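Researcher: I'm preparing a figure for a lab meeting and need a structural model of a single chain. I don't have an experimental structure, so a prediction will have to do for now. The sequence is pasted below. Please return the structure as tokens so I can convert it later.
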Amino acid sequence: MLDPEKARAASHLLVSHWDNGTHLAAIPEGLRPKTRTEGYAIQAHVMDRSAAPLFGWKIAATSLAGQRHINVDGPMAGRLLAEKAIEVGGTVSLATSKMRVAEIEFAFRFGRQLPPRPAPYEIAEVMDAVASLHPAIEIPDSRYDDFCAVGAPQLIADNACANLFVIGQPTQDEWRDVNLAKHPVAGIVSDKSRHDGTGAAVLGDPRIALTWLVNELSGLGIALQPGQVVITGTCVTPIRVEAGDEVIGDLGRFGKVSVRFV
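Model: Understood. Here is the structure written out token by token.
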């Protein structure tokens, strides 16, 4: 297992690049995680830089195409930091962005705690702990020169490419009995393009993805807390953006969110 001080040093290195908008080829060999567990140990120290409570969690690589693109064999969890939240309709600078993409997602806010336990949580148990559903846009990014080349442990250490995000108002529409796998989702870029998808892009169903996240954290001894939000992965192919674009995430009856890029 990676020495705790080395884990802290690796995280602080990554966070310094995050704060400065710079990049590195890879974590130095002496600090580099070799396993997913070591990656999560490094990631945990991202909270050293945050004065606010943890806002929530994200899931990266929730589609087979996404996993192949970044050369990983499964999803990854990352932390959402409160200071990285963007208001609906807010503005994001692309000046230091490497990925330059927006992703349209389902978000779920938890109403009660789900503590770690030996037995996996079932979907029904997880959904029973959810208080609300929200439309969301994620604007991920990486601190690596080539995020497709470093592998899952280093990507997890880099907070699973977490960066900025927009969480919309909770839907007032009844959603619990809706087939979210078949629910249409769209990303609209200014007057230039429309990108369509469904909830099935997210591990087959956003509820399956959410349950995966709960069980991934349970295996790490981490509890989902009341009020925390989970964004479950992009329902459309990541949308390339450039300065001047406005992206609207449209979840139909479940609401819309938007963000502008400069």
